[in-house]
Amino acid sequence: MLGFLSKLFGGSKSEKDVQKLAPIVEKINQYFQECQSLSNDQLRSKTQEFRIRIKEYLAEIDKEISVLTAQADAYGEDQIQDKDLTYQEIDKLKKERDRKIEEILEQIQPEAFAVVKEAARRFTNNEELQATATQLDKDLVVKRTHMRIEGDQVFYKKAWLAGGSEVVWNMVHYDVQLIGGSVLHQGKIAEMATGEGKTLVSTLPAYLNALPGEGVHLVTVNDYLARRDSEWNGTLFEFLGLTVDCIDKHQPNSEDRRKAYLADVVYGTNNEFGFDYLRDNMVVNTTEKVQRKLHFAMVDEVDSILIDEARTPLIIAGPVGTGSNEQQFQNMKPRIEKLIDAQKRLAQQYLNEAKKLIAEGDDDPKSGGLALMRAWRGLPKYGPLIKYLSEPGIKVKLQKAENYYLADQQKEMPKVDEGLLFHIDEKSNSVDLTDKGLGMITKDNEDPNFFVLPDISTALAGIDRSDLPAEEKLQKKESFLSEYSAKADRIHTVLQMLKAYSLFEKDVEYVVLDGQVKIVDEQTGRILDGRRYSDGLHQAIEAKENVHIEAATQTYATITLQNYFRMYHKLCGMTGTAETEAGEFWDIYKLDVVKIPTNLNMVRDDKQDLVFKTKREKYKSVIDEIEVLREAGRPVLVGTTSVEVSELLSKMLQVKKIPHNVLNAKQHAREAQVIAEAGLPSAVTIATNMAGRGTDIKLGAGVKEAGGLAILGTERHDSRRVDRQLRGRAGRQGDPGSSQFYVSLEDDLMRMFGSDRIAGMMDKLGYKEGEVIQHSMITKSIERAQKKVEENNFGIRKRLLEYDDVMNKQRSAVYTRRNHALSGERLALDIDNAFYTVADGLIASFKEQNDHEGFKMACIISFGIDTEITAEQLDKTDSNTLAQALYTEAKTAYLRKADALKKDAMPVFQNIKATQGAHIENVFVPFSDGKRGLQVLTPMNKTIETNGAELVNALERTSTLAFIDEAWKEHLRAMDDLRTSVQNARYEQKDPLVIYKVEAYTLFEQLNNEINKNIVSFLSHAGLPVEESSNVQIREGRQQKTDMSKMRQRKEDMVAAGAGSELMETPDYYDPSENVKREPIIAGPKIGRNDPCPCGSGKKYKQCHGKDA
Fold first, then answer.
1. What pLDDT, in 10s, does the model give residues 472-522?
2. How many helices, marked H, and strands, marked E, lie in the chain?
3. Measured between alpha carbons, how far is 238 from 236 in angstroms, rounded to an integer?
4. Which of 182, 611, 784, 1077 is the most exposed place for a label (fewest CB within 10 A)?
5. Residue 804: helix, strand or coil by DSSP?
6. Model-level pTM?
7. 913-950 burial: b if 16+ Cβ within 10 Å, else e
């Protein structure tokens, strides 16, 4: 029906979007025909021609920005407000400039795309391309073996190394790829089927958007793909005069990485782009920053990065100052194991009771249904229970009982839980202890309330109402709060360990390798190295598995990938599966999804799902089908959702003596070899979702004739995208193939979210064990169940991102202020605001108390002045007038102090220059306010030229950076603690997110006040130390790099951070190049220092491109 209505109104939205691009494709092909008559030199010169056109189009606005920048620089110290207004105008013009760039690129697009297509055609049709050598060619020829220079001519071969293997360029853009490139240029998501050449499509918008010189970032999911794609497509870009680099080839925070970001087209992984942003906001001088403006990003596998990893925080952490709670996990382990064993016995007892009562015909929710509910709420993954629920009519009886206990806001649910030690909600991945469970884990000689969290407001009110002296009341409150904190931590540890034992299974959610717990990605089946569950859950699993429990670390800087990529001026992406998440892409990123038609029609046969009652009969049917397909000469790819299932199927095949390969997280080292063999006739490959996204299975001889690759899915994944990715391995580029999913009512998806109608229908129709049901209605019902999970996950993601949005606003404010200090451009206004804010705070505080003596003392501490504001003025004058008066006093005193500082320092600087020579560039000047000292680095010549003004600027910069960094680090720690502690609000029937937002606002206000007070106090009191000896205090200095040696970077899975706990869906990709059998490294011909330089300059290599070698 929907398809009919869609056709009636002119097709789907994607089809309409594609139709709108038809005229552009036509224009591109017209220009393409014209380009074929150009010589290689003329084709290459098009890049410069486009850049000139762009420069001319932007000339007027660039001039305006230049004039205003010069004007802002010319303003004096007393024109701070004018300077700020000018910078605001510059910001507006820069946004307008970005809009104008898009306008001119739209005009150039057809011709630019045609130039890229023609360059691709020439590489395809020629063994070698010859052109006049440019300076870029001369720089590149030293590093590129596929290039050579003879005289003034450069030669490019059509074959070169990419990702360690030789590639021969044989690709020319189809029309559908031109459509895909146009969609990407518009800042949208192009959904393209497997084998449709997304890597080639990316060359079109990358070339066009690199022309303005603002930089293009191509984001991949792993460093292997970043390196490979930069080398594969790089030659095409370099032939056309663009520079290309890959940030993953260079060390973080290095000069080489900074140079990489200066390239026109920059490849890299999502993690490294994000970590570089964080590191850039930790440096102490602008020369250490590696990134430029975040202008245009093109994200490969965009659904993986911007949906699955959206809530994954990138964290730079350092050693924590205080002790952590590793010991507590070990102490609680015996209690938890005792609890789990007792719960298993209870679940078994209730299941037996349920079986007996239901067999007698008593399935009432208050008797047989109650026992079944208790078994299910106690251990939903209990094997005998899952088996029993697959019997005719039992699942329906459970649903009937559940509906009864869920009615009236779960009014009757406590009756179910009172018979259990703890209860599990598998849908939200949460575990809660019951009173009975609390009693069991509390030892006989312990306080009965050892694991009970007291009502904090009632307890504190009780202390206030007591007749104790004020000092004793304060001590009681501190003691109570300390005890409350310890209990909250203890209860949190218990719940996380319960979750680890009851919801997280070894070889399903994680594996243990080399004494470490490693997360297995549920979408790809790959090991997520370096990834840890958050909120203490990973430490709980480590305790469960008896491996080393890693110590806690303190966060120094953090950002989620979602908030990082939203900072780009223009964002786009490519993937094979984005349509199912189109709503989320639009809600969060304002990214539209356009489905690109395939170049050749898809002929894959996607069959309706086969639904069985039990897993056992499902797996038996899969094995039988494998035998049939093998006999037909077709390769088979069997997709599983866990390591456990892949190993079970492997054993079943071994019994039948069927040769096969297994690919899962335990055997990922053989990935490249297994995938290479997967398309051969009669090959059988069992793989977790590793064989889904990003895997290209090429068919062997005779396979097409036999019917192509057969996909057998052994379970429906929670996400439709994962199933589509698995299906996409067959039917690439018009190849034949088929896909079939096998489902049982015991599968996790069907147990938790499957329609009761399926179970009910199988019962009514009298289906017995071993029989199968297959119908389009059943397949649609399963997809509806998947949609429920996706909606549930989206809700969880949105909630978690609301937490992160609070942090993001704070981070943006702090980093903006930090960048003002780093560049020095708008620092004067920030310091001016700090003086006024501190003055206003003092007036507000002491006017209310009418404490003039305290006010005078605070003015001395904060501003170093004896204020002229009298007690009468403080009492009777309005607050705004008083704040302005105090601000004027304090600022005037500071300016006088700064003038005196310049006067005192100038003779010392002039003496250094006269006695030690002009070779000294920078000097360290020690400043102290009597409590803290700072070493301020300042350029000597500039300080002398500005009569000491540069010294004061350097003091302001250094002190502002120091106090912001110190306070921000502690603030992040407080926010981490807050996020954990607010979860206890659920026990008081309050929303943790609301409390988090309120408390976070208060903490941020405190942060700003602390930063302002520290900066103002230090600047008002700072001076050059009085020399007590002949030792020269002011000495030569050199710019020092920020010390990041003790810092570690990691990605953390956000689990149990909202209402319940969720596993991240965070695909990561294994680097196949690491596991291919290594050939001996053969060194290329080494260029001798005295040999002629390959660039053709005629100079010796050591005097030309070998200078820095």
1. 877 887 777 777 777 878 888 888 888 888 888 887 788 888 788 888 766
2. 39, 30
3. 6
4. 1077
5. helix
6. 0.75
7. beeeeeebebbebebebeeeebebbbbbeebbeeebeb
